[in-house]
Write a structure and sequence with these properties.
260 residues, alpha+beta, five-stranded mixed beta sheet, 11 helices
């Protein structure tokens, strides 16, 4: 199973260790603890940009340790993100990501593709979680390395990801529903919570006809129930549309770009 030690080793083996400022946990690990399906989420902050050769080496090393198809046997998925400090401190929007590995990118990377630095609104919630978690794997505390993300930029960033989610509700059902619930909760409260806590917040406010669908997603996330969506697919789509509409309303109220 992939561990934080594995990720630290991969980074040390592939990047210039003198260039690494810090490594920080984010995601489930700092928002209530890893769940059965949680990734190991790690943010790496470096001083300078990377070369294509180093990014390819980082891809190859992470393929070895991440996910069900890890080359040394099934492991917990790894989401590894690298950012150059000067791209996010002082903070500006949209931020620029130097490198990212996630299991959703595995097929591209196994075909030989190498990621290039690119604009990435997703860094806004990621950095917010890293600062909230204060969980350095290497280097100083994150608030000595990263600037806080203004709430307006956090809202813009999470809403920007909604259209992509809406295209995946039938193939990545649990994750889509719980991510939409977390976006809805964050827009309303200004706080990023765990996916199960966000589901609890939304469940308390959902019309009765939608509750069984979100409750199943929450139970599957916690490993308390075997997931099978065939009997609920029409209701899954209805809940997805309901949450997207609620997010759109909140987005207008908070003055950020629309969700659709």
């Amino acid at each position: 199973m992939a561990s934080t030690d594995d990720v630290v080793r991969v980074v040390r083996d592939t990047l210039d260790t003198n260039d690494v400022i810090g490594m920080y946990l984010h995601g489930s690990a700092v928002l209530g603890g890893l769940r059965p399906h949680s990734d190991v989420d790690v943010l790496v902050v470096v001083r300078h940009g990377t070369t294509t050769t180093r990014r390819r080496a980082l891809v190859e090393a992470t393929l070895e340790i991440s996910g069900e198809r890890a080359r040394h046997g099934p492991a917990r998925p790894v989401e590894l993100t690298v950012v150059v400090q000067s791209e996010v401190r002082p903070w500006r929007y949209p931020p620029r990501c130097e490198f990212q590995y996630g299991e959703w990118l595995r097929e591209e990377y196994e075909r030989g593709e190498t990621p290039a630095p690119t604009s990435s609104p997703d860094l806004a919630p990621l950095i917010t979680m890293a600062l909230l978690g204060r969980a350095p794997l290497l280097g100083p505390p994150p608030d000595e390395v990263l600037d806080p993300v203004p709430r307006a930029d956090l809202n813009r960033a999470i809403v920007a990801g909604v259209p992509e989610l809406l295209g995946e509700w039938a193939t990545d059902t649990r994750n889509v529903l719980l991510t939409l619930a977390r976006i809805r909760t964050t827009l309303a409260t200004g706080v990023i919570t765990s996916k199960d806590a966000a589901a609890d917040w939304v469940l308390a406010r959902l019309p009765a006809e939608h509750r069984p669908v979100l409750a199943r997603a929450r139970a599957g996330y916690l490993g308390a129930e075997r997931e099978d969506w065939q009997d609920l697919l029409p209701r899954v789509r209805a809940l997805t549309e309901y949450l997207a509409a609620a997010i759109e309303r909140s987005a207008r109220e908070t003055g950020c770009a629309g969700a659709q």
